[in-house]
Amino acid sequence: MKKVIFTIFAGMLTLASCMNDWDTEQISSSLYSNDTIGEPTVTIAELRKNFNSEISNSSYKLVTTDDVVEGVVVANDISGNIYQYIYIQQLNEDGTLNTDEGGIAVGIKGMGALYTLYPVGQKIRVALKDLYVGGYGQSPRIGMPYINTNGAMRMGPMPLAMMKEHIRIVGEADPSIVKAHEIQAADLTDDNITQLTPMLVVMNNAEISDAGWPYAHWEVGGDVFSEYHDISIDGTKVKQLLYTSTSSHFAGDTIQAGKKTIYGLLNRYSSSYQLSLRSIDDIIEK
User: Fold this and answer.
1) Is omega for the bond preceding 40 within 30 degrees of 0, making it cis?
2) What residues have CB less than 8 Å from 285, skipping those under 6 apart?
3) What CA–CA distance (Å, rounded) separates 263 from 188?
4) What is the Cα–Cα distance from 88 to 169, expressed in whole angstroms?
5) Which of 70, 146, 241, 249 is geometrically suited to a Cys-Cys bond with 156, CB 3.0 to 4.6 A?
6) How much is the pLDDT for 218?
7) How does pLDDT run across 128-177, given as a tens digit for each residue?
8) Stretch (H or E) spanning 162
9) In the 8-state DSSP scheme, what is residue 1?
């Protein structure tokens, strides 16, 4: 029996060694990047304006022009809290991030680790022709429509094959250019929701309610639920602002009491703000 166990263990070590050797090989991102996509022709703000009706009505429309939009990745699926989407914001002419205008989501399905291709700080270009632009809960998205479980058509992500055709990875990722827009509780008004979402934001002197509870947890009968938590910013409470998916890697982590600096992707669902942490590292304890 000992000999059998040793043989299996040795085989496992050999397999692990092979896997490590394979993991160290660099896979060219050009396999997933259409480097023939040219210079941008439309800004994110212009694109959102052109499709404002579809976005605000949570519908969608086919792009028929040869337009290209460019942006830098500010959030991705690295922790599982964001799924099938990356979020981009506009770069200014000097190469800095425009932190005063909301960006747009780019949906991609069929690849479970988008962050490996699109890390924070990665510039991308999207060739829009034959894709759709629209809204989901009035949040702007680029992708393709799909049929949900109720048989209704909704705005969703593009398939992997279309990603390879429609997205260009430009240069190397530079996370240092990604800055967050600081917000206060008073900023989160109905009038500001279109401008502020989706956007990378930061809140100082912030405190999450429900200290001692996990970020997301399960209830009676083992049914698992995503969770909302209030956040107080400088003592002013914003109800049900922090949204955490049960699929996130930190869903079971315990919320710590006390004031923090909190980063996250500020998004919307209809008239409600939703803040999603990109990873648990977005929480900086005081």
Assistant:
1) no
2) 256, 258, 260
3) 15
4) 13
5) 146
6) 62
7) 999 999 999 999 999 999 988 888 889 999 999 999 999 999 999 999 99
8) helix 160-166
9) -
Q: Report the candidate in 146, 142, 149 with the shortest Cα–Cα distance to residue 86.
A: 142
Instruction: Name the phi and psi angles at 200, rounded to 5.
Output: -80, 125
Residue 224 in tokens: 């698992």
Q: Which residue has the tokens 């680029």?
A: 142
Question: Residue 222 forms beta bridges with which residues?
Answer: none
Give CA–CA dist 228/239, Å, rounded: 9
- Pair 263, 218: CB distance under 8 Å: no
Nearest to 105 by CA among 138, 153, 152, 59: 138
First to last CA, the chain: 54
Q: How far apart are CA 238 and CA 185, in angstroms?
A: 6
Distances in Å between the alpha carbon of 129 and those of 32, 68, 136, 151? 18, 8, 20, 26
Radius of gyration of the chain (CA): 21
Task: Kindly report, residue by residue over 82-124, the tens digit of the pLDDT.
Answer: 999 999 999 999 999 999 999 999 999 999 899 999 999 999 9
What structural domains does the chain harbor? 29-177 (2.40.50), 181-285 (2.40.50)
Residue 114 is encoded by which pair of tokens? 């988008």
Positive or negative, the CA dihedral 75, 102, 185, 245 is negative
- What lies within 8 Å, CB to CB, of 74 at 6+ separation is 87, 88, 89, 97, 103, 120, 178, 199, 200, 265
> Strand 167-170 vs strand 123-127: parallel, antiparallel, or unpaired?
antiparallel
